Queue: 2 jobs
Job 1
Amino acid sequence: MIFTAGILPERSEKMNKSGLWILYKKELADHLHSKRFLIVLFIIAITGLSSIFAAGKGIVEAIGKQESDTFIFLRLFTTSSGSVPSFISFMSFLGPFVGLALGFDSINGERNRGSLSRLMAQPIARDSIINGKFLAGVTIIALMVFVLGIAIGALGIIMTGVPPTFDELFRIFTYLLLTIFYMSFWLALSQLFSILFKQTATSALAVVAVWLFLSIFLGLLINVLADFLYPLSNSSTLDIVLKNSKMKLYLNRISPATLYNEATLTLLNPGVRSLGFISQEQLIGAIPSALPFSQSLMIIWPHFISLIAINMICFTISYIYFMRQEIRA
Amino acid sequence: MKDNIIIKIRELTKKYGDFTAVNNLNLEIYEGEVFGLLGPNGAGKTTTLLMLLGLTEPTKGVAEVNGYDATKETLQVKRIVGYLPDHVGFYEDMTGRENLRFIGQLNGLDHYTIEERIERLLERVKLLDVGDKKVGAYSRGMKQRLGIADILMKEPKIIILDEPTLGLDPEGVKEMLDLIMELSKKDNRTILISSHLLHQIQKICDRVGIFVKGNLLAKGPIETLGEKVFSDEPLTLEIEILPLDDRVKKLLNSINGITDIKIIEGKIIIQSHEEVRKDLVKVLSQNDYEIRYLKQRGRELDDIYSRYFAGKE
């Protein structure tokens, strides 16, 4: 006892770390072997490639005809062509799906199979279970997003024959990073629901409910509310019109999807100068040119931070619940 | 060796809202013994085990395992305790060997030790030939035996088994019990078993505790349990004598302590507050009665069983 007293804290710290590392490795392997991952990868790849293919074809035809030959590489990601939506709108739409697919049963699935209590009976810290699962999920997302991003970039170069500039490369890289944070949010939310709800079906439905609410109903509700508080008519003053629009804009930003879409738009569209309202006077004297990367980044910095923050909020709540939860077989 | 307390539970209480799952439990478990925590379903056995492992927090009281506080020093506790839950869940798409390897890694063992233990333990639980098959294809008995190998990966000092024989066929039960006996006698580990299948478990327990509705009614070696459980109630004796005449009632009434005498179907049923068998035999034999049958009722394990366990499974 006398000897171990000094050694134990050190040893337990080391074991905590190894517990996390081993859980992380196992989760990663599980994901990579699962059919679910293959399905997600398949859907993302198909939609991504088809949108790029369509956009690329449109761009090739347009090159030379129009005056705007700048940022052709970025337009690969943002252009929608006919019936095929753009790559960025696909990603914004599929983000929740990826998070959901990877995380909706992460804790309650183990609980239902009875393997959670077996895991918890081992000398590992409780938090390393959720940390390991989340980190493995984020790794999978990052792998998918980057591989897809690079593949699409390569396809774009082959199709258009135009190599990206450094500015464009930075923008694309930041965009991919942003996409990872966005999908991670949905992963964190799914994992939170998998802790809160005992049934995997319930947690999956809850994520779908939040997804639908944020992407459809929140916007409708905000419109109703804003029009009720600041009704618009032919005789409305400028003040009312502005208040109405501002309220819609700010409340819509509650939704991570809005944050992500705004940030994406600004990043991949160097012409976007502001996400708020600009009066005619403010525009006088402005040179109609593209913003450099650093300035675009400055505009969306709050969006970036917000996305990271909501990730952390989800994770904190998961933490609080999971650390005190009773684990019954 | 057997007087070394390894698990010490003091005033342990767990409430879920208004419902008291475990009420003021006091219990010591000695090193090297097999202790059976017996009681019907919903008596609070599993809750008690969870509190010992720090998987749920007690409302009140302390549980110490090998000197560690089970609520605060869970890592130290989990390092020396192997726990087999009642529905043990393996990763079904991994093989038996992979499942064991994973647990070994989580316990911080090195590669060589892990492989050596997997080999030895699979042989011990007779699963060596199916070690590379996916656990999803195992039968319940095989899973349960893999569970034993699983908890032995960390070479625990204490083994906690929750309903280890539940859902096994008679052959499986026997194999399981033999395995548990071996863990106790050969490896000298402390074993705590919870079960509602009293008859299966009683054979291998050194001591048992009867747990009903959150309260520990009695604890001790199984032979002395009846006395403890029914200590407040009158003793009941059944006797058959020859000849059975009217005089005998008067005679029996003269013995101190007897409160009630009934004659039913040729048997005399005697109730008393204290032990009267010695006086009874003496009086009867002095008066030339032949005692053909004498049995004390309601002090045996079967009576405990029928009172608390039967019909509640």
Job 2
Amino acid sequence: MDTLDLARLQFAVTTSFHFLFVLLTLGLVTLIVVMQTRFTLTRAPVHERMTKFWGRIYVINYALGIVTGVVMEFQFGLNWSGLASYAGDVFGAPLALETLVAFFLESTFLGLWIFGWGRLNRWVHLALIWLTALTAYASAFWIMAANGFLQHPVGYEERDGVLRLVDFGALLTNPTFGTALTHVVFAALTTGGVFVTGVSAYHFIKCTGEVEFFRRSLRLGVVVTAVATPFLIGAGFGQFPIIGTYQPHKEDAAPWLGVPLGFMILIGMSLLLASWAAVPLLFRDWVIRMRFPLYLMVIGIPLPFCAAIFGWLFREIGRQPWLVYGLLRTEDAVSHVSAASMTTSLVVFSSMFLLLAVTDWALIARAVRSGPETTPRPIAPLVVSL
Amino acid sequence: METLWLALLTVLVMGYFALAGFDYGTGLLLPFVRRAEAMRRMTPFFLGNEVWLVASVGVLFAAFPRLEGELLSGAHQVFTLVLGGLVLFMASVQLRLWHGLVFAGALMVSCGWGLFVAHLSGTPWFIWVVVMPMLFALHGWAFQTRRRPAFLLTALACALPVPIAFSSHSVAGLMAHPDTLAMLSWVAIPILPLVVILQWSIVAISSR
């Protein structure tokens, strides 16, 4: 493989791993906002315990996800220096807004939320999780604006061989931005819903005794999934006319590109049907008493993650051979780096990311198995530790 | 406008080295000090410190697009080392893994930044792979032993090498267009003091 193939493979691997963390972060934080808001309003202990239990899983995932994000950010400059020098004036703007407005603030609000547990006024503490969630969504907003530009460049002017930003608003009204953002946001909500449902179902299968706790969690998870999936699928199909207009040859980019797309649609439809079938069964907890749906719920946990990777493969590979559609070819954007250097970084980052994902999974599984706390801990309950 | 963004980048980069420097220093000192206590002192600062790097690279990309690619891809292997070290260090600190991993991560990151200084300044690499870890270790020691005046000095010593080595490079013609910079500065300028205040309150709260 030459430098270009290695750089593309590295981007595909690191971005896919990064996105697994992103999905769960975005999805879970939304459900935690609901739980903590209920706790702050009602002061019912069950909501506080729910916020702590799911919050802990969220923090584990965030702490490891942030590490993948740092590598992602460097990767543009390391491997794709042609993108920065040609389109950096335009593409860099939403990316910088993401780091400054969203990520820089998000991690700071989250830090305050973690260390402020039990030490801050409860309304201030509630405001912090709301702010963390809003800045997390702002992250998705700016990243999708940047990605929308790569799919269909707008708001620029080419002068002296480089792009210049002339209309910032055009980046935000870009047809390849809004629908795709909606799709990603509801994909994250679906992931959060399916995850909370599956984990709660696991505790019912194991009969761990936390009935009230996981009954509420399961109901919340099912309802969120049922509400999110129609929008998810709507925003998914809503993109086909846009693709038809702006990237009519998308499916020709690779002969097998229909396969991941097909699987993604299949998973989306299954989740829609399953969640809508489960909603009426929430009545008198039939879904729990019937037991067999619980097993399906556990099996379903990985599905949204797979679907999201399939979706990204379709969107990104379908843009080839362009990096910035119609303007900059991928082969012209890759850095002048030896294949040996690229192989080294590919091996280093891929193996570390794989290890991070496995660790994340193992730690979450452990937190899930040990269940919600029965006695409050002396230190901040959310500091990640083994 | 261009001076402003150069100043902003310098502040962020210096902030990163002054803050994360004592994290790496703590990591380097771990085999020689009481570990649990050293880690406990660092914990409230840790996440806040590392995000300064992310902000620096974000500003580098947006405001200096033609510099970013050159700078990073020109030192590809050095950054592989720095990032590999960062992944190891951040993950092992947050998960409280075996202290040897924390140490190895800190060593990789600090040697990596040493190599980067050597790369920028054209000075021999074997000096900097020793000097940079020593500076960080000294800074970590000043932080751990709470020697305020020494801490300020070591912070400065950690923060200066990269900006000084970089100052010999001209950035003329490498920056984004003034219109883009003007638009971004509406956002960037209020954020920095806000983040500083919020990060300060994390530390204040956790020491309560």
